[in-house]
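name: query_chain
kind: protein
chains: 1
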Amino acid sequence: MPPAIPSEIRIIGITGMPEVQPGDDLAALLVSAAQNQGTAIQPGDVVVVTQKVVSKAEGRVVRLEDVTPSPLAITISEGHRRDPRHTEVVLRESKRIVRMDRGVIISETYHGFICANAGVDASNVPGATTLCLLPLDPDASARRIRQGIQQRLGVTTAVIISDTFGRPWRSGATNVAIGVAGIDPMLSYVGQEDAHGKTLHTTVLCVADELAAAAELAAGKVLGVPVVLIRGYPYQPSESASHQALLRDPDKDLFR
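structure:
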């Protein structure tokens, strides 16, 4: 049976973290920041960490000065505001180009995510010519942070690495989970009965995405809040959690 949903779930933004540098210990930084503001991490918390700080700590940044654009990148960028070197980085981070139109590149990353520009982004990184890439293995990133929290505090948590994706057929973007640790990212109601006694056959919720989206309400995009605690949600623990569960099987993808 799905867990009973409580009447109240808290969303707590963690402030006071310094600008993250390559090699920084994210677990140590966020544990300290949470304690300093009086909201120390507790057992059962879901710790949502934005992709940017994870990528910065792991050195997943590129300077345009170090990139030579290919002829394809130059051609794609003609007539659009994106620097051809930026386009080149997008192409390098793409496993497959899904669609290109009017300067927009929708691609499949090597992780299996389908998103704009392979997740390559210039926002919230210092320097006018610096780009941030997705972590090489977001699940491993989440596991390291989770283990670091447990080593320092002796508490068991779940960790979600979040990023902002656009959505087909919907305006605006929302945060989604790109890496998970300690939490089953899916919640199945298949086989359960609804309030009218009807059996559910296909209802499976992506709770990892829902938690990531909720966390963004406290993190924002310009507030300098890269970590959020979600407290009171009775998630299903999992030691084998992976973002692969979030990806639709190509055989069931009607739009591929």
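note: The chain has two domains: 10-58+135-249, 61-131.
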